[in-house]
């Protein structure tokens, strides 16, 4: 009785055969205990000592298990669980611009973000994660969902130079961020932050505004850096330096920064990170799946950087399992350095706990089991066959078992901020079946949206955005096997022909051909433009034109009225369009073109003198064209073209209907 | 009633929302059904059709789940589950020769193999594996354990040129293999085979004998090939060609071969495999963990090889989870080719099922759900959050969910050869808790064995084998700062000194220093030997010598009797010894030595004239030594050395007690 009275009362006493602290000495207590009062850890230590010192309202004995700090997921786009396995095994641009962004534009709302975060929380808690860092839209909804689930999170509001689902301009994005940060900055579970998305999706002004916001409220700043080699190359071309020094000049690292990915950074850039205490979020699965590369984690660790581990969004992973990521981080570092002693198990667990907290600048709150920190802890059962047998010779063996063999199935109990979120694998704060039902209903809508979109090449084209649907009609005629030099002289000498302007071009056309009901043909043209007199390249223009084989109408002299359903700047690569549209066939036509804009009979016409280079022996052509808008106008122009052909001394028998694309078939 | 009578009766009808067949057309039935009678699949197809055609004694409805072929683990050392997490994050040689082999020599018995395989089977069944390929010792015990667990297996008996736990010579290993194969060759679950371990652990004769055994009984041959770059380099040095053409010349590929790892093979070697239908077992986790490299799987697949997936032994993985390996295979291939479209999910599942069966030469039995094949199938529930939401637009989405997001926790039911091995995650053939208890008891013994061994440097030395413990005593004296040239002339001119032989040496000594109770010092010496007259290198000798700082006795004139506790050829690298022994400190001494064996007073003595190169300014030394066996002999030799020192005109004051190792401290 007197002994009982001399003990200090706490809320919860947790005992286990092993307690891993991840404190600076890496103490392991065997057996150990943790005492929790309110939201904090009061004591951690040897089991007997703790039991002699404290008495608790709630006593939990984990037995043959390890109690350790909860895992910390340092990078993700949490609501994207709702887009998991929507589209896989695609290249980053096709995946992002062909699927993720069009669907996000259509479906992302605050409720989408809340639902996706709740779904993610169910998965994260069941796999032992207690804290996550997020970068997405409507961040307040993410924060709300995290709090309802009981998880700790740094929720950073995305800001981009493009219109986003939650902000039509970056100024409005920053406004939203400021408002959100002000209201959440003292929350016990959520730390708000700002996330200028990546060097290639921001402007210097946007970055500077985001930094001053982060500094004003002393909140974390989250950003993607150097995820792909392409990004770094492009940045060098545009700014004459890689992203890291550019961001440094803009003052980014003055803020409490967490940089995601960092696959392609060099030692100098790492030293910059070290100097400014920039945390790194390493995302092994995502970097493999999108073939971004293997981040130089060993070197970062050797230079003293705080490197945490992240899952990235479920749309590129496809799960949110930190045990799996931790294991993969350890394995990849070995093969990357060709040294199996690299990144041993204890260091991998360190990255997934205390070092992750440091990378997120919240190590004062969480990441290790130490008195005074918030009670964020998990219990992993050691009963499974995969964790058998139990060797005890080497104390590092325990880390090995957790990193190389434990699965999420072994995570038994999860506590965050002193509150149990899972006991015996049963979620206490989340109604998973209800979330599943709602997520599946939404998936059906997304399926329908994409299937509708994929009904035609045109709708797929419109879906990738940036362009408006537009129809244009052209009256045109073609003559094969002409003497180009003689014809050019004759054209310019023809009375009533006024030369307006001209150019010499090399045109590389790829036709993507579809066996659909419209006979769709999507032409991707790279057009090298020079002066008519020759000389240097003036410009290279890529254009994308969708046509159908159906001709609208034919006039006398084989003059045809054709319709193009879409014509726009081709802003992405031929490879992108090929992988996105997946044509049934593909053919190429290359030609040299001398192009003349003339006025004839008061009307502007284009006259092209073409030599086909590919396919070989494709011959020479005269082409006369004019845009038109009405049937009356079309008929008038067809008559004018007939007159011009007569003036050029070309007989109607020489006219051909073949399109260039058919030459290549 | 009449409708019921017209139906064909089978044993089991399994229905599910999805049935993945992995047949040549990759048919997926949504919803689907499988009809099983005895050990075989009778029908697979559309659910309604199957239900209209068959009636069953047992009806299992999996609901929101996928029924698919059981996973096939194409490479492992199954009993090594018992050594899981015994020693991790070590280099291959330290891990293998320092830990695995010494423990195996001591502990591997038929019962060890049975127990380890049962433990492995519990884990494999729970993660959806129905078939495995094994290479280990006492293979009949492995086969017995597989049959008791109800699993299908190809069990290949290891044969090595070294003494193995189950055979003191390879001839006896082959004898054991023949006997085992004869008795098991018609078993319904186990296919016996022979496993010449690897090119570097066999002889040409052994290989040829193993091949003729495999051909005689038409059974599979399993072998490791090109796991590390080192192995290939060494093989080239020894045989002037890499392992694959060497094995081809020896006729290995005439047998039904499965080659494990193949991390370092080129396109020509892949074509050899293609020509001979050699199956490949790709082991992604093991190759990462041991830093062996990333196998060029994409190229193998493009060339039409049958590449299966394996876990390798649990001691280098550390679990036996094929879902995880399959996922890792898909992810690694993408980063290795820097292309995220490489090895899409369907192909990864194909490797883990039908292609694995082909790689093991048992595709007539298993690997796909097709009528006539054995009923080896699993049901994976799609209810988990990690598999939510469910998109249906793209049929490949189902493969994505299984490969990128499913976990072993989702595997609900497992059937092999028409028999249920697991229902609702409950194992039906294995008593896991009893196995755990026995495995943990054995682990305690192994712990004790290793801890005893690691009590002293000497016992650790003996544990890595190949040498016997041996003590030797030496009488020795040292004189510092001598004029080497003058002293050599004086020595050879001394009356009563007979010159026997001599050599010039460059000696590179590394001292590993231990703060143990004996003051152990382990010297690793690389000794370059030349003629006294100079000229080319005659030999390079590596020696390992364990001494303690304790001197046995001191005589007058600072002549000491020292004891070396171990002296042997150093067959492994300095790096190996460093990582294996983990000394507290390390120091280096390099010297040039002119070494004279002389006879003086009827006794053989060694006289060394040394110039220390490292540490710099280490000076010059005369050293006189002689081995001794008894105290009387030691005293006599000490007197002789005193006489010789006097004859060389060296005063007793010049003598020093310092050891060379202390120069470097």
What does this structure look like?
Chain A has 22 helices and 29 strands. Chain A has two domains: about 70-360, TIM Barrel, CATH 3.20.20; about 455-665, Hypothetical Protein Pfu-838710-001. In chain A, helix 13 crosses helix 14, helix 13 (about 320-335) crosses helix 16 and helix 14 packs across helix 16 (about 395-405). The mean pLDDT of chain A is about 90. In chain A, about 35% of the residues lie in helices and about 30% in strands. Chain A has about 675 residues and is an alpha+beta fold. In chain A, strands 20-25-23-22-21-26-27-28 form an eight-stranded antiparallel beta barrel. The first copy, chain A, starts with a helix and ends with a helix. At the A-B interface, helix 4, helix 11, helix 13, helix 16 and helix 17 of A face helix 4, helix 11, helix 13, helix 16 and helix 17 of B.
What's the topology here?
The structure is a homodimer of 665-residue chains.
Chain A: H1 2-6, E1 8-16, E2 18-20, E3 28-29, E4 32-37, E5 40-46, H2 47-53, E6 54-61, E7 65-69, E8 71-73, H3 92-107, H4 110-126, E9 129-136, H5 139-149, E10 152-159, H6 170-184, E11 190-196, H7 204-217, E12 220-225, H8 229-239, H9 243-249, E13 256-261, H10 267-276, E14 279-282, H11 284-289, H12 297-302, E15 307-309, H13 322-337, H14 345-351, H15 354-359, E16 377-381, H16 397-405, E17 411-416, E18 419-423, E19 426-427, H17 432-453, H18 457-463, E20 472-480, H19 484-493, E21 497-513, E22 520-531, E23 534-548, E24 553-554, E25 560-569, H20 574-581, E26 585-600, E27 603-614, E28 620-628, H21 631-647, E29 655-656, H22 660-663
Parallel strand pairs in A: 1-6, 2-7, 8-9, 9-10, 10-11, 12-13, 13-14, 14-15
Antiparallel strand pairs in A: 1-4, 2-3, 4-5, 7-16, 16-17, 17-18, 18-19, 20-25, 20-28, 20-29, 21-22, 21-26, 22-23, 23-25, 24-25, 26-27, 27-28
Helix pairs in contact in A: 3-20, 4-5, 4-17, 6-7, 13-14, 13-16, 14-16
